[in-house]
Amino acid sequence: MTKKLYIDQEALATLSLLKEGLLKPVDKLMNEKESLEVNQTKMYKGTTFPFSFVLAPSGKKNEIILKNLQKGEKLTLVCDDTICGHLICDEVFKIDKDERVKLIYGTNNPLHPGVVNTYKRLGNYAICGEFDVLFDDIKEHKIELNKAINNLEAKSISAIMLSGKPFHRIHERLIRTALVKNDLIVIFLLKPYTDDELSYKTRYNVVKYFCDNFLPKDKVILIPLENTYIFGGFNEIILNAIVAHNYGCTQLILGKEKAGIGAFYQDKCFSSIADTIMGIDIDIEIMSNFVYCDKCSTLVSTNACPHGSHHHIHYHSESIMELFYLGIIPPAILVRKEISSIILSDLFPQRTEKLAKIHQQLSLNSGLLDDFETTDFYENLMNLYQTSSLT
């Protein structure tokens, strides 16, 4: 009877990234010698790679299996009680959990939420060997993107990594700016493996709505990116660059305030972690900060606006999300009203009956009783906010 190794969805997705070639030059699970070398040098086959790539699932059953496994034995990989692949054992070795967590996050402080979660998922023993997994999503996205590249004969392909929490006007500006310079824009929407009040489905629907209605459809493609634990630390930008390059992108666009960018000044020049990357053939462009200037009455780069910071409204994602969680529509200069409507409708589905009544009383209508969508209410309410003759 084939022995079983139990893994979770996050491990399955990470193995699929590896199997589909998105982490090249890493193309296999590392053995003990390779792991120790990569952890020390932060390099693999002449390319920057921040930590070893190993499979070390937690659990007493898994540890018993791994400790007693022989080279050449075949394991069945199981995720959520379903067979998801197979692995032929080449080597099993003990790992230093503390060291691994610190390599990923830059700390092993238990106050860090990623640290706590990774400790729970991480076992004491790692296994390497040939494997296969059943995870078709990534394969389908690669096919979709390759088709778009071929159809456009695209030479300059720019990647933008977004969490979309929330998707606001600065994101719109970054995408439009990139569109001017490139044949194709790939928006990678980071798909988390932790619960959140703003669901991934809502985030995806919002960005898709913007792409479908306000961008040239043939020049933009939206792809979910499995945002697993390997992207959770200060090495995120390095791994983003590797994945974007292996998807076929020629450029990665980052905002200057992007988390993990590691900005510093050296020899009177602005530098970042992006300047330390070796062996990855992709251009990394760090965009300047954008703000809303009440003097210019538009979005501006802080590098190009003559007015002081007291005229600038900054786009703090956490503050905008707090408005949404309170049920408040953010001003349209922060978030497009249609997008706010989608988010609030999904966050507060229990409001539908009350909102339908208010909508009927406050909205212009033809006298006919139309089907009601909660998004209609929020959009019409924003229109009332923007009516200016009495203000």
Task: Give a written overview of the molecule.
There is one protein chain. With 391 residues, the chain is an alpha/beta fold. The chain has three domains: 3-133, Sulfate adenylyltransferase, CATH 3.10.400.10; 136-287, Rossmann fold (3-Layer(aba) Sandwich), CATH 3.40.50; 292-385, no CATH class. Helix content is 38%, strand content 22%. It has helices spanning 9-19, 32-41, 60-67, 97-105, 113-121, 136-152, 169-181, 200-214, 236-247, 317-325, 337-347, 352-362, 374-385; strands at 3-6, 43-44, 47-48, 55-57, 74-79, 82-88, 91-94, 122-128, 131-133, 157-162, 184-191, 220-226, 251-255, 264-266, 269-271, 283-287, 290-293, 298-301, 312-313. The strands form six sheets. The chain has a five-stranded parallel sheet with strand order 12-11-10-13-16, with helices on both faces. Strands 1-5-6-9 form a four-stranded mixed sheet. A hairpin with a 4-residue loop joins strand 17 and strand 18. The longest helix has 17 residues, at 136-152. The radius of gyration is 24 Å and the shape is globular. The model is unreliable at 262-266 (pLDDT under 50).
**Beginning-to-end CA distance, first to last residue:** 77 Å
Helical percentage: 25-40%
Instruction: Indicate the overall shape.
Output: globular
Per the CATH scheme, the topology name of the largest domain is Rossmann fold
The fraction of residues assigned to DSSP E strands is: 15-25%
Unreliable residue stretches: 262-266
User: Could you give the count of β-strands?
Assistant: 19
- How many distinct helices? 13
Structural class: alpha/beta
CATH superfamily of the largest domain: HUPs
